[in-house]
């Protein structure tokens, strides 16, 4: 249960920080887009914005895929040990398998959100420090 609570807290923290960081970044960038003349710095920022989104998308999918594969291995191991216990002792406990499944979605969501969260929070901090 401690691990499940930690994963849920991590996901909640990621969502909360993203909730505040993303609008700051959007506001900063759109206000720069609204200017009539874009500086070289602005053009570099917009180019960076596009490449970051593509990179975050692929990192997000890779993170979710990796977490899902790891969860599948955990579940296979838990069910295998339960089947072995049933075959040798006549009783089986599926508690480990149920525990592995209980926070699987949270772990996958957190892994998928991690790259987006990391970039948005870093951009919010970086853009807040910029002079304009």
Description:
- The chain has helices at 2-33, 40-89, 95-102, 104-129.
- The chain has 132 residues and is mostly helical.
- It has one domain.
- Helix 1 packs parallel to helix 4 (104-129) and helix 2 packs antiparallel against helix 3 (95-102).
Distance between the termini: 46 Å
**How many β strands by DSSP?**
0
Using the alpha-carbon principal axes, give the shape.
Answer: elongated
Number of helices: 4
* Sheet of most strands: none
Sum up the structure in keywords.
132 residues; mainly alpha; 88% helix
Task: Please provide a brief summary of the model.
With 132 residues, the chain is mainly alpha-helical.
In terms of topology, how is this protein built?
Layout: H1 2-33, H2 40-89, H3 95-102, H4 104-129
Helix pairs in contact: 1-4, 2-3, 2-4
